């Protein structure tokens, strides 16, 4: 029988580290230290897979064993959600498209999007580049003229940015972000600041040739976007993205009571406050799966919630 279930976050160590914020404010518990990244939703069997304690199984197992909860055209759960709080800049990287990923390691491309939850005054992200063509890109990269090649954007709280395949990018130090992406994990690094991975005692591998083959040329010069919120039955609703075959991203802010209807399965991640979701206690850091066709969701309390979902390509849903 369909019911709302809690999703337990999954953690992995990162060389760029993390502070205490995800433990202190988001109530996460893990032996991984320091915690720079929490996967609120991930279902990559044998690699990274959230647990669903109430069902005594992983999220990938739930997806396979209870298909009516999702009604998806995909063999694997199509979306992934994570929250990042880095102590240092992430590597300069990109994610390739489906065709390259399939031929490279049998995987999938990983288009994604970020919403800035908080940022220091000097917070920034690396996003795109200034090279006019492939030759100039290679020349600047191989001579490490990063100040001429890399494009940086100052961050502002609540801003949204879309990251198509082939976009050079990196989250900057101290920039707290909510990320939604395809449920995939192929990252091609151009530059990693010559950092040493404490687990191996060596620098992490970079993939310059693969980056040269996949980086968008010329760059699309994408900027941050701000989306208006609409008052809908007690919810301040911000609709960021709704693309069949990719993902749906909506934000719900409730001060006292609100109701919301979404016709597809959805993962509700609370990024601020506390209250209830259909009577179930919900606080900052919690993620709940609301299965497909569950009807109205009643929200009570002072809550800031992101809704991550997916619409099929070839049907009405």
At a glance:
This protein is mostly beta strands and 317 residues long. The protein is 12% helix and 40% strand.
Explain what the structure shows.
The chain starts with a strand and ends in an 8-residue tail after the last strand. It has six helices and 26 strands. The strands form seven sheets. Strands 1, 19, 20, 21, 22, 23, 24, 25 and 26 form a nine-stranded antiparallel β-sheet that branches. It has a six-stranded antiparallel β-sheet with strand order 2-3-8-15-10-13, with no helix packed on it. It has a three-stranded antiparallel β-sheet with strand order 12-11-14. The radius of gyration is 19 Å and the shape is globular. The longest helix has 9 residues, at 134-142. With 317 residues, it is mainly beta.
């Amino acid at each position: 029988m369909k019911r709302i279930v809690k999703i337990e976050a999954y953690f992995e160590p990162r060389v760029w580290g993390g502070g205490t914020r995800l433990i202190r404010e988001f109530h996460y518990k893990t032996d991984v230290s320091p915690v720079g990244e929490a996967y609120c939703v991930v279902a990559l069997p044998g690699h990274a897979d959230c647990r669903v304690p109430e069902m005594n199984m992983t999220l990938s197992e739930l997806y396979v064993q209870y298909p009516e909860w999702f009604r998806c055209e995909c063999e694997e759960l199509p979306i992934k959600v994570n929250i990042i709080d880095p102590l240092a800049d992430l590597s300069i990287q990109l994610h390739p498209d489906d065709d390259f990923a399939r031929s490279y390691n049998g995987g999938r491309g990983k288009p994604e999007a970020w919403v800035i939850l908080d940022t220091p005054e000097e917070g920034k992200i690396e996003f795109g580049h200034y090279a006019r063509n492939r030759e100039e890109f290679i020349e600047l990269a191989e001579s490490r003229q990063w100040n001429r090649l890399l494009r940086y954007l100052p961050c502002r709280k609540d801003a949204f940015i879309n990251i198509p395949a082939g976009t050079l990018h990196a989250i900057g130090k101290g920039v707290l972000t909510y990320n939604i992406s395809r449920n995939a994990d192929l990252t091609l690094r151009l530059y990693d600041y010559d950092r040493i991975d404490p687990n191996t005692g060596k620098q992490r591998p970079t993939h310059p040739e693969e980056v040269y083959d996949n980086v968008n040329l010329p760059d699309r010069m994408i900027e941050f976007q701000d989306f208006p919120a609409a008052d809908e039955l007690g919810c301040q609703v911000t609709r960021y993205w709704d693309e069949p075959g990719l993902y749906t991203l909506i934000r719900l802010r409730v001060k006292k009571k609100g109701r919301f209807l979404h016709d597809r399965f959805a993962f509700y991640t609370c990024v601020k406050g506390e209250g209830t979701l259909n009577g179930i206690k919900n606080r900052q850091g919690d993620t709940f799966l609301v299965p497909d066709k569950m009807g109205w969701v009643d929200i009570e309390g002072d809550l800031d919630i992101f809704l991550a979902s997916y619409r099929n390509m070839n049907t009405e849903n």
